[in-house]
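Dear colleagues,

For the upcoming journal club I promised to circulate an example of a predicted protein-ligand complex. I picked one with N-oxalylglycine because it came up in last month's discussion. The inputs are reproduced below in full, followed by the predicted structure.
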Amino acid sequence: MLGNGAARQAKERRENRRRRKRKKSARFFSYKVYEKELCKIFWSSSTAPLKSEPRNISQHLRGIRQFGACIYHADMPMKKEVSSVPSFSPTSNPPSTTSDQDKPAGNSPARQMEKLISSKHNIQHVPESYILPPEIRPGKATTPSCKCIPVIDLHGNIDSNRQDLVQRIMEAGQEFGFFQLTNHGVPEELMNETVKVAEEFFQLPVEDKASFYSEDPRKGCRLSTSIDYDHEKVHFWRDNLRHHCRPLEDHVGEWPTNPTRYREVIGNYAVRVWELSLVLLDLICEGLGTESGYFEGGLSKLQMMSLNYYPPCPDPALTLGLPKHADPNLITVLNQGAVPGLQVLEDEKWLALEPVPNAFVVNIGHTLQVISNGMLRSAEHRVVTNAYVARATVTSFIQPSNDSLIRPATVLVDRCSLPLYRPFRYEEFLRTYVKDAQEGKPPLQQYEISQT
Ligand code: OGA
Ligand code: NI
């Protein structure tokens, strides 16, 4: 028999557990549930707690109209930028205000290679052109680490706990737009080798990398630095190599052969990440309630591999490796290695997404936010630098073909909710994404359908 105090404590624990469970299940809201539960939820004020509790029925109705199944997060997808600071994007092309004096004269390969941050050795001070305006500097304050972003364990066997996985992925996508994945089936050795090969590439002498350097974003396999070095106001502390990966045989011939194992390692890695991405998209498809295979074909046609290199920086408080942005594509699968640097904006606060050994970081892109009609969220993130070690990361952007039509999935707008976005071609969006980034506008704003 338990004593009175112990019995009371056990009861409290049970109740807390029950309360947590109720709260958790309220957060996940697949369309299957949505269809059945909508009326019940709409009319009953005793429903499980909402993240942003509507204050009255008309507000609730507006929430339903605007956000459909995303009602539990009604404050989330339409949140407007409040910052007066221009936001940059990883592919932006901000108008130049750099004086000609600051620019290298001539565009010889040697001059171009001087622009790479990895070409600058033993820098004692941050060069003027890398010092960010105070409003977007990360500053000296330490950033809390983000414990809340879920780490989802695939257990190497997806089918045995499929329902649970779908639920956890959808929850994470709705609430954070980010999650980490462990036991995903890509071998640890391949994960580590990939980051090592990336690092080795950037650490090669300039003459071994020079043939890949280009100012032309259309070049198949392109080495560049910052975001748009020749036109941007201020530079970011990263070098980048990017190339397409699918179909492999069409692209691998353009990739580096130094390090000698580059093509083998990155090729194997690209195939494994591609397979994993298809599994993830299938799970997301189930969570959204769209017909199976919804993302196959044009919507997930391309796999762009982007290798980032962030060398140590003498004063990380003044610089960023990448500015605040959300990715334009469908989903992003990132191998961030063991060195921290990625930060996610959560409720207007930056949180550090610490590396979990052998895990992938997955995030939802703008395209998936639109297809899910705002149910899944493309969250803003940035990369900070550090003073001690170089950081190499390998990002796979799964993205639609340029001619793909992007629109909220029909099945999601047929069921009591209106589309939040007008249809557009992916190519059009990429163009406006860059332009909006230059002007500091939220990239999806011009595609939103007014709900009034
Ligand atoms: C990106 C990105 C994060 C990182 O390439 O879009 O957000 O940690 N990278 O390199
Ligand atoms: Ni990104």
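Two points we might discuss: Confidence is low (pLDDT under 50) at residues 20-105. The two ends are 61 Å apart (CA to CA).

See you all on Thursday,
B. R.
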